[in-house]
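Bug report

Summary: structure tokens for Major facilitator superfamily (MFS) profile domain-containing protein differ between web form and batch submission.
Environment: batch mode, default settings.
Steps: 1) Submit the sequence below via batch. 2) Compare with the web form result.

Sequence submitted:
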Amino acid sequence: MALGNTSKDGLFRNIRVYWLAFIVYWGIVLFGYDTGVGGGVVSANYFLQTFGLVDENGAKDQKKLDNVSSNVVAVLQAGAFFGALSSAPVSSRIGRKFTLFAFTVIFSVGAILTTIANGPPHGLPLIYSGRVLAGYGIGAISAVAPALWQVAIGVMISYFVNYAIGVHVPSGVNVWRIPFGFQLVPAGIMVFGLLTVRESPRWLASVGRQEEALNNLAYLRRTNTSDSEVLAEMAEIQAAIEEENAARAGVNWKEAFFGKGNFVRFFIAFFIFVLQQWAGQNSVNYYAPQIFASIGYVSRKNSLLASGVYGIIKVVATAIFIFFGVETLGRKLSLFISAIGMGSLFFIIGAILKTHPPPSTNPNVAPPAPSPAAQAMAGMLYIYVCFYSMGWGPLPWVYVSDIFPTRTRHYGLATASASQWLWNFVVSKVTPSMLTSLRYKIFFMFGAVNIGAMGLFSLLIPETKGRSLEEMDIIFGAISAEERNANIERQKALDHHDAHSVKTDSVDRKEEA
């Protein structure tokens, strides 16, 4: 929703718009928190002991641990996949406000189930079912209210909540109840906050409720329905809706996917998110304590603190790039530098880890402090997330939005979203077993994907910065440059003819007078 002209009353003219944005963005913070909290919970010693993931001597049953860890994290992504797909038809029918409200309530039910979970035999089934419901809710919320920076903030908060639990709550069911229960704080803010806001004027206008749309727009701008600026903005909204409807009239999936110049765009939309999910970031994101433990931060307290620092750096790096860098380097160069930087750092981490493996630990002996080699690898991971945040983190969504015309953009974004969630699920499911079986080689694998696949992909795709949608049609072969120029000249000739006809008619009328 546009912020409009704020010249009359400055900040306070749009205070209700800012309040609406504040409420909705809690849903994205919620999404980030929920994706980051699982890995910390399943790494807690009391969780492992309670659910039989360690034996009486404290030794881990690694296969069983990998299975439970991947289930706790991955079922969230599975639920989010279906939530994202179901949000569009729901929001088009009942509106943005009530869609967000309904899915936040669904999320809250899931959060409650994970929070009330006790030990065996019903504890894990409750956690699994709660995570599926929570994922379904946040998948839909993220589709209705997309954002990026708030996701990073939510992940960071989850890391520090887990760190606080690791330091102050060593045992008891609160090891997972507090982190899972904390989800209800942003969910509660969102549920009650949504009761204080009104429906989107754009959605109301799109379903023919013009008077209500105008009233809500005037309410958001803190003025009356006869205000000239509000009327102009309402006219702009209606014109945009009519243009969008005209552009999409008669489009079907066959034309969308296989029309001239379209298939390559859909391939890019799908494959760019395959690569993004295999960049390694989500493996670190979802299993940060386990990743840091694998490089030598074997103490739970140290691994959780290192995860928290990682979260802070990601928030800062993402904010800097979004606010200052996204339009500076262009899409191709940003993606290429990002891929090469990430891949190089992964190869360095893998090489150091091969020659300086983490010390073996005894559950009955205090774990050692991180070695200089472990600290160096942690530093590499911190630099790595900066490279991720300047390219392959935010830019795939920007790029996909750039390449699709209005007529097929909704199909393109749906394809991108489905690919993102599908591969998100796959990566979150297989990461624990890969970490166990590959050890240092997992970093070599991610390095190869980053340089060999993502770097090459960045060089092959066309640049979109500063290009119009009309130029995108030429780039992807929907129309040739010669045909476009011929159409332009034909339109100019028609416009000139129409202008000449109007001028002639005007002269004739004057002569008759």
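Above is the batch result. After comparison, the two runs are identical; trailing whitespace caused the diff. The chain has 23 helices and no strands. The chain has a mean pLDDT of 87.
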